[in-house]
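Protein 1 of 2
SEQ + STRUCT:
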Amino acid sequence: MKRPSFLPLSLLLVAWLGAGCASTPTARQYVPADSGNAFLWEVKDSHGGVAYLVGSIHMGKPGALTLPASMEAAFSKAEVLAVEVDTTRTDPTTLQKLVLELGTLPEGQGLSQRLDPTTRELLERTATRLGIAAQGLERLRPWLAGLLLNNLEFEAAGYKQGHGIDRAFLDRAHGLQKQVMELETADGQLRMLAGTPDKLQDLMLRDQLRREQPPAEIVEALTSAWKAGDADGMAALLLEGAKDATYRPVYERVFFERNVQMANKLDTLLAEPRVHLVVVGAGHVVGPEGIVALLQKKGHTVRQLPRDAATP
């Protein structure tokens, strides 16, 4: 079995929902509703503070996603780029060591012993489909087993790290020596996963493994929603599983709790005199519990911007 390969931490959380994808068990055809907007929101507070919020797709293929004019303008105007984690500055060796330290079970314990029978059956079926031995996953905790399987599946479909929206902004910001700040930390994201109770880790893994859509279809649907500026469609693709009471705790842990934390940080940034461009996973932006909705509840004026706007 392959050892867990290094991934930027911005992808680790996304991996639980199939690289930020639909977790509904039934495959369905997504038809984008073109809004004419970018996946970009302008946020203003009552004192004149301004920030721009981008929903990102974390992985893709080279050239699959290009930035619309309004995003280019927002990036040019912003003095600071804020991201979940600056993956360009994360040390792979240190991270790999921490992943294995937090994600490996003690000697004598096995993954299969910790899983619900339904999850165990799904795990064996997925491992067989990917051509790996389920026995090779036995020393891994559920969250790391899910990450490894997800990584193998999407890499086999041709999707790799480094071709997402957040990475494109990071590379350009560093090239221009623009200030980059992190809303979270790689260490913190890992410890959040590792600190998840066992029963919830089982649910996270089961939610990932019950997915029916092939990786190519999933990423294509997400890409279509992103290009169309279809916030409601993106929410349906990413967060439909939250309507199921069984899986609701997974979304609370991976999305909604962190949305509150990131919205609070963005609220603080709006008080600064500088303009920020904030880039987070698309699943954190949309829906009634997304960052856009949370900022509106705080009294900020938020509007989605047209794709072709030369100035935000």
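Protein 2 of 2
SEQ + STRUCT:
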Amino acid sequence: MLSARYDLFISHASEDKEEFVRPLATSLMQLGVKTWYDEHSLTIGDSLSASIDKGLQESNYGLIVLSPSFLSKPWPEYEFRSLITLETGDRKRILPVWYHVNRKEIMRFSPHLADRYAFDATGKDPLLAALEALRVAKPEAYAELYRRHAAEKLSVPLGKLAPNPMLGPPMTQPQLRRIRFIREALMEVFPQGWNETVTSFRRDLPQYRDGEIEVWECVAGTYLRVSRKFTLDRKRRRALFRLLIDDTIGTPIPDDPGQPAWVRAAAAEFRSELPDE
């Protein structure tokens, strides 16, 4: 990941600010994405490539809201070609969002953008576009969403993802076996159906799936060992689960002498390294 002042900037036509872009930017900031967008409200006479180039100097990614207002502006042809030159190698930095436009209209505007993967935000909650941008711009943070949902610490309800989840390729059989263990181990404190559980992992980018499954395996394994060792009641098992999840999202399990023995054991177990074979 590049080091930049912002995670993401939004380039858009000024006409789309009130209806779509401001709610989108608000959702991004609620999700913890450092977003710059006020400086990239484009009006007639502005240079598209200069604006995007300037934004990419300050940000890791640029999100372009392609709308009828955006496409109707008299961009010269060289502006279209400049979008290609702003990305180097295989690293994707420009994230197109379609807003009340279709592929045919995008093709007339720029064949290059028409062939790129884009999120179609037409008729959808801006939060969904924000989540897709988060998935690309901050994949580690996106992977944490499911854990925050489990700990009931989401500022944005994860349930809004349910109608149209953005899914990657299917899980492998080894991954599905690991997920089955996680689900069975945590069923009493985090009950979910099989399809819902698998879908939560399929939302992650493929290269981050194994790492996220490993985090949940650590939670499940520690939960089983500590809850059985101390024969915890349902209330304490639920508290144990919350402590473990909190640890994965930046709040370490307390291990000071004043804590109950099962809490201190959970802290030690969760941070311990398994011995080599």
